[in-house]
Amino acid sequence: MISPLPILDVRALAKSVESRQLFADLSLAVAGGELVAILGESGVGKSTLLNILAGLDTGDAGEVRVEGVELDALDEVRRTRLRRERIGFVFQAFHILPYLTLRQNVALPLALVSSRAREIDARADAMLAAVGLGARGESYARDLSGGELQRVAIARALVHEPALILADEPTGNLDPETARGVLRLFAEAVRNRGAAAVIVTHSAATAEIADRVLTLTAKGLRP
Ligand SMILES: Nc1ncnc2c1ncn2[C@@H]1O[C@H](COP(=O)(O)OP(=O)(O)OP(=O)(O)O)[C@@H](O)[C@H]1O
């Protein structure tokens, strides 16, 4: 089910870092029900692009709309709220908070908008189970491997059923079998719930489940 209105709409986006232009005039529309994989050489600007799509960084020109709302037109409070409620982000460096249990980490997006503790914990536990970490809710980040941390980050990014999923190499630390399980979760969110997803990846398995595969080069996004 692909809806006609894009959840993510990027127009004429430009970005330079330290006087090097990463991209200029980059456009991308991703509809609900669509999963887009972005490939590209190291250093080409994929993570920078994802950060701009999430409103964590800003472009030099152009606009990014999420569900019709232009990120640059929002003040920081509203942009943060939109990010928390409508976007699920899997960072390359996970950003699992060390002083919270894994359950509390996964529950965070829900806890920020609801006070129903029991319901929140149950959903966090279900999400941990979905990434194969159902028994680890009471553990802390220091007790986990890189691949396990990556799965906690994925659980946290999906728990609040975001409209837009942005993921930076979400299967980079996973064995092929675990990677397939994780990719199924992204695919389910997109196909069953109508979310839109942009996944930066080097993995052929991720590209295989994508509706579109685009490559970022200095000239922009190309099929
Ligand atoms: N805050 C910053 N200040 C200066 N340079 C930066 C900054 N952020 C990113 N860069 C540079 O911008 C370029 C793009 O970085 P980015 O992390 O977006 O690339 P990438 O395509 O995601 O790379 P990789 O596949 O290795 O993760 C790199 O050359 C990086 O060094």
CATH fold field value: Rossmann fold
Q: Beta-strand level of the residues, as a percent range?
A: 25-35%
Class by alpha and beta content: alpha/beta
Uncertain residue segments: none
State the CATH class: Alpha Beta
Overall shape: it is globular
In spatial order, strands of the major sheet run: 6-7-8-3-9-10
Bound molecules: adenosine-5'-triphosphate
- Share of helix, binned: 25-40%
Write the CATH homologous superfamily. P-loop containing nucleotide triphosphate hydrolases
Task: State the domain count.
Answer: 1
**Total number of beta strands:** 10
CATH architecture: 3-Layer(aba) Sandwich
Protein name: ABC transporter ATP-binding protein
Keywords: ATP-binding, Nucleotide-binding, Transport
Organism: Aureimonas endophytica
GO molecular function: ATP binding; ATP hydrolysis activity; transmembrane transporter activity
Describe this structure in words.
Belongs to the ABC transporter superfamily. Keywords: ATP-binding, Nucleotide-binding, Transport. It comes from Aureimonas endophytica. GO terms for molecular function: ATP binding; ATP hydrolysis activity; transmembrane transporter activity. This protein has 223 residues and is an alpha/beta fold. The protein has a single domain (31-56, 76-222), classed as Rossmann fold (3-Layer(aba) Sandwich). Helix content is 36%, strand content 27%. It is built from 7 helices and 10 strands. The protein has a 6-stranded mixed β-sheet, with helices on both faces. Strands 2-1-4-5 form a 4-stranded antiparallel β-sheet, covered by helices on one side. The longest helix has 18 residues, at 176-193. Bound molecules: adenosine-5'-triphosphate. The site of adenosine-5'-triphosphate has 11 residues, from helix 1.
